[in-house]
Amino acid sequence: MIFDGKKFQAERVQILRKKLVDLKLKQGRVLSLASLYFSTDQASQTYTRLKEKLAEKLGIRFIKFGIDIESGDDLNKINQLIKLEAGKVDGVLIQKPSKIMTIPDRHRDEVFYQLAASVPVEKDVDVISPKSLGRLVMINESLKFLWPATVRAVFWVLAVALKVYQHQVNNPFELISETQILVGKKIVVVGNRGLVGSVLSLALASFGAQVVGGDKGVDVEVLVREGEIVISCTGVPGLIKSDWIRPSQTIVDVGFGKKEGRVVGDFEKATYEKVKFSAGVPGGVGPITVISLMENLLQLFVSQNQRINRI
């Protein structure tokens, strides 16, 4: 079975839209999201447009700010802008720059992490600030099931793959927790040292999975052959070969790359049809990540309101 991310997104959009309409009718509230993106990064622009389009469909006010670090935009001023806007909106997003930017990888990542550190925890819709990431390892009931949008998307996919998905459930983590479906599952995460892979590994392990990670310098083929579920998020096109994969495996492709002008994932395309369940690129995890971000926004708003009401 090849997972249809666009179809699944459409279903989650209908569910979330109803909740947002109810929020507006009962509390007169329209949620708002501020998004900062890298204006010289084509991928960053594309992702921002996708989020803007979905926000419009959901009735969420979407404010975007483009920055140009390649031309020397002042990071201190940008940090101040983030803090200022955070006071006016319900959530703040920093769109992670892609590897195609014409600046060194190290500098690109340093800029992103510096900006991420400016996002207040209570407005951190994609769970990217150091404080937000630190809270993932702590027990906090109000934000217990708030994880980065990509992680949330992968958990939605796993709920479908493992046949425990229920459309009325608001949160995939609650569903996975209640069913205990990941307990003891051997899951291989290729690219486990990156931002997405490291947090995803933490999330999977926290719900009982036996997580094995692999990155540079590791024999990826050996690892991939051993997993019941294989998830890859390296961004290296076609890294995982079809002949490494068994038909009984479940594969989830979180990679994003380009080959001969086409968007491709970490798995060779032939693997998608070879296994019992696959979420490929494009059209798999990607569309779910966008709706997951909007679900996180509502969850942040609800948890913040609950906290204020307790004061």
Description:
The chain is an alpha/beta fold. The protein has 2 domains: 25-125, Rossmann fold, CATH 3.40.50.10860; 149-286, Rossmann fold. Helices cover 45% and strands 14% of the residues. It contains 11 helices and 10 strands. The strands form 3 sheets. The chain has a 5-stranded parallel sheet with strand order 5-4-6-7-10, with helices on both faces. β4, α8 (195-206) and β5 form a beta-alpha-beta unit. α6 (149-161) packs across α11. The radius of gyration is 19 Å and the shape is globular.
Task: Give the SSE layout.
Blueprint (H helix, E strand, L loop, with lengths): L4 H23 L4 E7 L3 H17 L2 E7 L7 H12 L4 E4 L10 H12 L13 H6 L13 H13 L10 H8 L6 E5 L4 H12 L3 E5 L5 H7 L2 E4 L17 E4 L3 E3 L2 E3 L5 H5 L2 E3 L5 H26 L1
Parallel strand pairs: 1-2, 1-3, 4-5, 4-6, 6-7, 7-10
Antiparallel strand pairs: 8-9
Gist?
With 311 residues, the chain is an alpha/beta fold. Helix content is 45%, strand content 14%.
**Broad shape:** globular
- Provide the CATH superfamily of the largest domain: NAD(P)-binding Rossmann-like Domain
**Major beta sheet, strand line-up:** 5-4-6-7-10
CATH class of the largest domain: Alpha Beta
CATH architecture verdict of the largest domain: 3-Layer(aba) Sandwich
Give the overall average pLDDT. Answer: 88
Q: What kind of oligomer do you see?
A: single chain
Number of domains: 2
Number of helices: 11
- Give the strand content: 5-15%
Which structural class fits the helix and strand makeup? Answer: alpha/beta
**Low-confidence blocks of residues:** none
